[in-house]
Design brief:
Layout: H1 2-23, H2 33-47, H3 60-74, H4 80-93, H5 103-112, H6 120-123, H7 141-146, H8 151-163, H9 169-187, H10 196-210, H11 224-238, H12 243-250, H13 260-269, H14 282-292, H15 297-312, H16 319-322, H17 328-344
The structure holds ADP-ribosyl-L-arginine and magnesium ion (MG) (3 copies).
Length: about 350
């Protein structure tokens, strides 16, 4: 029903914000068991009603997610040139949000070329190879919400939105996979237990159609995401909770291939209790677990949080936790605005 869906929209965008804000201070950390104890205390403290601390600021992940959401509410027909303009405007007004080292060249070229060809600058990255960073995947949640009822529309919009900055197959397919996972979460009832193996099987089926030789060049591009998804199934099945082993298999860095599957794993693993994470709340557990793997913590926790929030809805988000985040009211309004646009068109 619409009340649940509206709550899922908020949960998704707030989950993405909270993961970014709470994960950012741990970026690049290698998480020892001591670090995990610190993390547990950090969350316990932030959840407390009385705790007052400095606001946790968001990074590039949220800055760009805001642009995607705004572009959809301002131009419901989906205008990628407008989206590119918002990215550039956002970057030059607040450049110190922790952007990737190379993506900033795309923003500069887009601006100096006056958005003549919005896909050319990204194509030129890394000597024509394109970026395979996770900067496309980290910002897709508004597209998964907007196209929650339109699978093909979502795939195409996610791909076009990603290509503004990232043209490598792994960056595009990673963004597509992240959006599929969020879309699946929207369709699940938070009162039910998730069948994790089935959840991943559905993703494998969908990625089979994506990871094909679509240029028809008869080149074997491989199926790297399918392989990661199979690894997720094995890890979930074995109950292996060894952080080092999980990082070795799935990764925890800024490459899309080494972070999107990791976020899916974190979300699914956190549906049941995890040693040394003390909370009954599956939303908090998802984000805390994602951060506990270290590495690209803001982005992995943000992508995990957007799945957890899309599954559970915003009623599961601890209000004290939320009040420590910069832009929490604005993000909730963005979710409502996105929902209102769909309501106006009767969800078609
Ligand atoms: N940038 C950060 N965090 C800084 C951590 C880096 C480290 N501490 C440092 O000092 O460098 N976080 C934010 O960046 C990620 C999203 O990045 P995005 O938008 O994908 O950027 P970019 O510049 O396109 O790619 C990031 C880096 O990935 C490597 N790379 C990508 N494609 C490559 C290719 N084809 N060949 C070789 N390397 C490639 C480069 O090192 C890029 O700089 C998020 O984590 C966000 O939170
Ligand atoms: Mg970031
Ligand atoms: Mg990051
Ligand atoms: Mg509610």
């Amino acid at each position: 029903d619409n009340i649940l869906l509206k709550s899922k929209f908020r949960g998704c965008l707030l989950g993405s914000l909270i993961g970014d804000c709470f994960g950012a201070p741990f970026e690049g950390d290698i998480m020892t068991s001591g670090g995990k104890v610190v993390l547990q205390k950090y969350f316990d403290k932030l959840e407390g009603a009385a705790f007052k601390g400095p606001i946790k600021t968001y990074t590039d992940d949220t800055a760009m997610t805001k642009c995607v959401a705004k572009s959809l509410t301002d131009k419901p027909a989906v205008d990628f040139k407008f989206m590119a303009r918002l990215f550039v405007k956002e970057y030059f007004s607040e450049p110190r949000r922790g952007y990737g080292k190379n993506v900033v060249d795309v923003f500069a070229k887009l601006r100096s070329n006056k958005f003549d060809d919005i896909y050319k600058p990204a194509n030129e990255q890394f000597a024509g190879m394109g970026s395979f960073g996770n900067g496309g995947a980290m910002r897709v949640s508004p597209l998964a919400l907007y196209f929650h009822n339109n699978y093909q529309g979502m795939i195409s919009a996610v791909s076009n939105a990603t290509r503004i900055t990232h043209t490598h197959k792994n960056a595009i397919n990673g963004a597509v996979l992240q959006s599929m996972a969020v879309q699946q979460c929207l369709k699940l009832d938070p009162a039910d237990k998730i069948d994790a193996q089935k959840f991943v099987n559905n993703l494998i089926e969908k990625m089979r159609m994506i990871e094909v030789d679509d240029e028809g060049l008869n080149i074997d591009n491989g199926t790297p995401y399918k392989e990661k998804l199979v690894d997720i199934q094995k890890l979930l099945d074995s109950g292996n909770d060894d952080t080092e082993e999980i990082i070795r298999i799935l990764g925890n860095d800024i490459f899309a291939l080494h972070s999107v599957p990791t976020a899916i794993f974190c979300f699914l693993r956190a549906q049941t209790p995890i040693p040394r994470i003390t909370t009954d709340n599956r939303f908090r557990r998802s984000i805390q677990y994602a951060i506990s793997l270290g590495g690209d913590t803001d982005t992995i926790a943000s992508m995990t949080g957007s799945m957890a929030g899309a599954f559970l809805g915003d009623d599961y988000i601890n209000k004290h936790l939320l009040r420590h985040c910069e832009f929490q009211k604005g993000m909730s309004e963005m979710a409502d605005n996105l929902f209102a646009v769909l309501e106006d068109t009767n969800f078609t």
